[in-house]
Amino acid sequence: MPAPESANVATELRTAMGKLTRRVRHEDRIPLGQVAVLGTLDRDGAMTTSDLAADQRVRPQSMARAVGLLLEQGLVARRAHPTDGRKSLVELSTAGRDALDAERSRRAGWLAQAIEAELTAEEREVLARSAALMERLAAR
Q1: Tens digit of pLDDT for each residue in 74-106?
Q2: Of 39, 43, 42, whose CA–CA distance to 30 is shortest?
């Protein structure tokens, strides 16, 4: 059982991170589900629609619709699977990479401006150290 202080910090941290995440997403131009698919393809490379669905924890039919929308927009492309002729791989297109980069830049830009406008130099140092701690917690 965690100590009451740790439980309180956990609650406050979860609440603050949720608010910050929602605020940063306000800068998005591409729907969240589509950005998640583009991000996965960017990090992990080409994959089948079924693998994408499993990664995003959605039904294959839902992922097929999302991939279809991304194909229509030219943000992803399909190519033949190298070892299984029955399957195809979905991969990030050049336009998709550009759109994802722009989305990430908007998010990071807003956050960087907010950090500069709202935090003192000392607070920015604390925040920088805190980011590494949050990474450690996320990796647990």
Answers
A1: 999 999 999 988 999 999 999 999 999 999 999
A2: 39
